[in-house]
Amino acid sequence: MPLPCPACGTVSIRQHSRYRRRLADTALGERRMEIFLSVRRLTCVNETCDKKTFAEQVEALAHIP
Ligand SMILES: [Zn+2]
């Protein structure tokens, strides 16, 4: 999914990496639930841009351990 760089507006198509960040630990009834956010890190393809990489937050994932 193309996403414009927040600094220069160039549409980046290069995905740098992906990581998961844990958002919350909640209780659902008696079960514990963890909520993860899947974050894509994108590289700006504009060589004169000093933003280089930026993060996009795409999807929240609920995970029941
Ligand atoms: Zn840029």
Description:
With 65 residues, the protein is mainly beta. The protein contains no helices and five strands. Strand 3 and strand 4 form a beta hairpin. Residues 5, 7-8, 10, 44, 46, 49, 51 line the site of zinc ion (ZN).
| Largest sheet geometry | 3 strands, antiparallel
Low-confidence region ranges: none
Principal-axis shape equals rod-shaped
> N- to C-terminal separation?
30 Å
Strand order of the largest sheet: 3-4-5
Can you tell me the number of structural domains? 1
Helix and strand pattern: EEEEE
Care to count the β-strands?
Answer: 5
What portion of the residues fall into strands of 2 or more residues?
Answer: over 45%
**Averaged pLDDT, please?**
80
Our Rg estimate from Cα atoms comes to 16 Å
Layout: helices, strands, pairs:
Blueprint: E1 3-4, E2 11-12, E3 14-28, E4 31-43, E5 53-63
Antiparallel strand pairs: 1-2, 3-4, 4-5
This protein binds zinc ion.
Residues 5, 7-8, 10, 44, 46, 49, 51 line the site of zinc ion.
Short description:
The protein has 65 residues and is an all-beta fold.
Task: List its salient traits.
three-stranded antiparallel beta sheet; two-stranded antiparallel ribbon; 0% helix; binds zinc ion; mainly beta
